[in-house]
Amino acid sequence: MWEVISVFLEGISAEAGALGGIAAVLTVAWAIIKKPFTRNKPTQLAPETIEQIKPVAAKDGTALTISEFIRLRRELKADLEQELAEAAETEKEQLRAQIADLEAQIENPDEALEAANKRIADLEALLDRSGNIVGGDRISEAKTALEHGDTSLADEIFQEIEACNELAVQETARAAFGRGEIAEGEVRWADAARHYAKAAKLDESFDALRKASDFAERSGNYEQASQFSNDLVRVAKTAGDQPQLSDALNEHATNLSSLGRYAEAEDLYRNALEIGRATIGEGHPSYATHLSNLAGVVEEQGRYVEAEGFYRNALEIDRATIGEGHPDYGTGLNNLAGVVSAQGRYAEAEGLYRDSLEIGRATIGEGHPDYATRLSNLAGVIRGQERYEEAEGLFRDALEIGLATIGEGHPDYATSLNNLAGVVSAQGRYEEAEGLYRDVLDIDRATIGEGHPSYAIGVTNLAGVVRAQGRHAEAEELYRAALEIGRATIGEGHPDYATRLNNLAGVVRAQGRYAEAAGFYREALRVFRSTLPEGHPNIALVKENLANLTEP
Question: How far is 282 from 277, CA to CA, in rounded Å?
Fold first, then answer.
């Protein structure tokens, strides 16, 4: 999930500099649920080829059946729930995410079953190549166990191979990769990340690097993920084909986006899009994913009209290929709604979010973290229409789902907390909102760091409620700190930067420095006019603020 934090503006009324008009600080986090090209990638094989090779269709009876798969997933879920009950607080976040992933697999098992059977086939091949080392009887026994979903003997064999110092590095790398596949199948993401990282360091193959990058990212280690994906691009350029290079570019762009390096990510996504156009064509579901990825990073940089066009094109492709009932189509609606909302078209965005929620309810289920994201997004546009009590209820529902799935220490939980704080503030409960915003900053400081664009959002939000309580000097200091982060990350031409200029102008005006405030308002208006449509409410608000800027 790629969190894109968008904002509302602080307005100044004609009465004594009190908060008025829209009267809200940067609060609402519009969370884009990204469809990364390298995760759950649609196959590029013809349907008749898929039927011939997919493990679930094997005629020898060795593949898992759907009933066996669901039984194993439920057993694993029960084990994880028991582990969660006894886990330390630092471990609960990832356990909840793993349980949510299992619930999604149980609800919609087809794709996960196909992946599980492919893992079994891969592991059997790895075991066959190790027969001379551990003996044919043990290999046969391990393969039989695999075919019934029992990976313990295979894991034991791979562990023994890893431990043999006399073995060649390549053999050790294969064993580490096999253990990674086992951990992935059992939804042990931290273990999978460790095994895949070892495999990638020993043998820089495309598959090992891609898996290492993917699971480092899932584990929240974005810096390490970007190192692996950078190596993946290098390998793809020297030894891979064009589709592999496209995969690698998308993987690396995903990780750079997670680090807030949006301009670099955009260049990579555009390169991947060009390769996709030349290889799979513009009517392929994977090409739609390319477009969606590009749209997300364009939106991050405040170019909303351009991003909307990309999202709509991606949806058209998805409608013609995967259909309107597919989970990815629901994701596309969610993403489009976010950029529509960012342009001030709240009623239109509300309809899109409700459609996305309906698809999510029927596919991923109401207990999934992505469902919580969509719920939070819907609440955001309802808040934008000043239906505060309704929005607060939805935000609290989303927060409860997040608490039960990803945990309190996750950046996405901080986003939900930020959303709740915004609507609490909009109802005048400033002390309560301040406490929530400070909690948000504590989580963000420990996860994404103080130099991330999203951290600046939290600082700005805190400044707004501090100012609302009359602590103008403290608020000014916070606004200036947020501006500095924004200048270094999103740049001075971004709408969010203009929002912060408007907010700073308000608190400067409240301290009687009218000429200085006018300069900030004019600069904010210039940026908004260069990025937003003329009818956008933010433009009207800043114009009103400037018009009302008179000394008492």
Answer: 6
Query: What φ, ψ does residue 139 adopt, rounded to 5°?
Result: -60, -45
Sign, CA dihedral 87-92-97-100, equals positive
Q: Is the pLDDT of residue 362 over 80?
A: yes
Spatial distance between the Cα atoms of 304 and 278, rounded to a whole number of angstroms = 27
Rg of the Cα atoms in the chain: 25
Q: Residue type at 73? A: R
CATH tag, 1-44+366-552 = 1.25.40.10
Mean pLDDT of the chain: 81
Q: Is it the case that residue 288 has pLDDT exceeding 50?
A: yes
Taking the CB of residue 513, how many other CB atoms lie within 10 A of it?
15
- In the chain, where are the structural domains located? 1-44+366-552, 52-203
For the record, the structure tokens of 19 come out as: 């908060």
**pTM beyond 0.70:** no
Q: Which of 92, 69, 70 is nearest to 81 (CA)?
A: 92
Cα torsion angle, 439, 445, 451, 452, sign: negative
Q: What percent of the chain has pLDDT over 70?
A: 83
In the block, residue with structure tokens 């039927």? 51
Amino acid at 372: A
DSSP 368: S
The DSSP code sequence of 136-153 is HHHHHHHHHHHTTT--HH
HEC string of 372-439? HHHHHHHHHHHHHCCCHHHHHHHHHHHHHHHHHHCCCCCHHHHHHHHHHHHHHHHCCCHHHHHHHHHH
Local structure of residue 3 (DSSP, 8 states): E
Higher pLDDT, 374 or 40: 374
Q: Which of 156, 153, 152, 208 is nearest to 180 (CA)?
A: 208
CA angle (148 as vertex; 116, 57 as ends), nearest 5: 55
pLDDT for 278 beyond 80: yes
3-class state of residue 537 by DSSP: helix
The phi and psi torsions of 167 (rounded to 5 degrees) equal: -75, 155
CA 37 to chain CA mean position, Å = 13
pLDDT one-digit tens code per residue, 472-484: 999 999 999 999 9
Total count of residues recorded for the chain: 552
Decide if 33 contacts 374 (C-beta within 8 A).
Answer: yes
Are the beta carbons of 270 and 289 closer than 8 angstroms?
A: no
Instruction: Report how far residue 385's alpha carbon sits from residue 401's, in angstroms, rounded to the nearest whole number.
Output: 24
CA distances from 227 to 232, 258, 505 (A): 9, 13, 41
Q: How many CA atoms within 13 Å lie on the side-chain side of 518?
A: 9
177, two tokens = 């990769």
Rounded Cα gap, residues 95 and 404, in angstroms: 10
Q: What pairs with residue 12 in β-bridges?
A: 19
Alpha helices in 66-205 (DSSP H): 66-86, 89-107, 109-129, 131-134, 136-146, 152-163, 169-185, 189-202
| CA dist., res. 547 & res. 550, Å (int) | 8
